[in-house]
Amino acid sequence: MSRLTLETRLRAIGAERYHDRHPFHHMLHGGDCNPDQVRAWVINRWAYQAAIPMKDAAFLSRCDDPDMRRAWRSRIEDHDGGVDEGGGIRRWLKLAEAVGLDPEYVASGGGVLPATRFAVDAYIRYVRDAPLLQAVASSLTELFAPKIHEQRIAGLFKHYDFANPDSMSYFQHRLNEAPKDVAYGLAWVLDHADTPEKEDQAAAALRFKTDVLWAQLDALYSAYVTPGSIPPGAWQPGEGMA
Ligand SMILES: O=C(O)c1cc(C(=O)O)c2c(n1)C(=O)C(=O)c1cc(C(=O)O)[nH]c1-2
């Protein structure tokens, strides 16, 4: 398969399975989430945010090529940042504050849904344990992330009072950060998936990752859109407020 054909195959996986197609995102971006549903999303998405630099550290720990480590480590810097200015993680907590939550509660990881924990943990383990090709390919959902971030910025500004340049700065930054990550990751996968088996493995890794993202929104929808179905131990509206 040519590089172009494999790229087309990977992009088709996103078109079919990326979480921008999930009903919860349609609600969120269309202004149909109530304040508690937005808060539940911010709390649960925190678990994913917090895991990203951990999975990138797991990736670096298995990477024996200094050039690759050098290219990859900016992902951790993007999320953790420096002591004074922080990074994406701190920007996420600004969003938490803007929707009325106590950032310390959100940062504690309390109230996260069981299925969210399982999905996020599966992603860290996958990147730690799978062959390097799959570990890189699993990050390629970021091919589709800038579009969803643009939709989110526009949708949240249009429909919700909490949206302002400060509270939305996480997504604004990602618009600049994700393209460099994905350009590197995609080129690496296209270079290294040089047999039909490896092409299938790269595609399977991307499908796995779309499942990680989809499962998180299924969990949110089930718990906070369907009445009376918040699992034991998960965030209850009113908890963790500023
Ligand atoms: O808001 C989103 O829908 C979304 C999706 C994804 C993704 O596709 O995995 C990431 C992000 N955001 C994101 O902000 C981010 O930093 C990020 C890192 C990664 C990764 O797999 O390394 N995905 C994503």
Notable traits:
12 helices, globular, 70% helix, mainly alpha, 0% strand, PqqC, binds pyrroloquinoline quinone, Heme Oxygenase, Chain A, 242 residues
Q: Could you characterize the architecture of this molecule?
A:
By secondary structure, the protein is mainly α. It has a single domain (3-224), classed as Heme oxygenase-like (Heme Oxygenase, Chain A, Up-down Bundle). It contains twelve helices and no strands. It has helices spanning 3-17, 23-29, 35-61, 66-72, 74-80, 88-98, 103-107, 114-129, 132-137, 145-159, 169-192, 196-224. Helix 1 runs parallel beside helix 12 (196-224), helix 3 (35-61) runs antiparallel to helix 12 (196-224) and helix 10 runs antiparallel to helix 11. The chain is globular. Bound molecules: pyrroloquinoline quinone. Residues 52, 139, 141-142, 145, 148-149, 174, 213 line the site of pyrroloquinoline quinone. It is an enzyme of class 1 (oxidoreductase). It catalyses: 6-(2-amino-2-carboxyethyl)-7,8-dioxo-1,2,3,4,7,8-hexahydroquinoline-2,4-dicarboxylate + 3 O2 = pyrroloquinoline quinone + 2 H2O2 + 2 H2O + H(+). Belongs to the PqqC family. Ring cyclization and eight-electron oxidation of 3a-(2-amino-2-carboxyethyl)-4,5-dioxo-4,5,6,7,8,9-hexahydroquinoline-7,9-dicarboxylic-acid to PQQ. This is Pyrroloquinoline-quinone synthase.
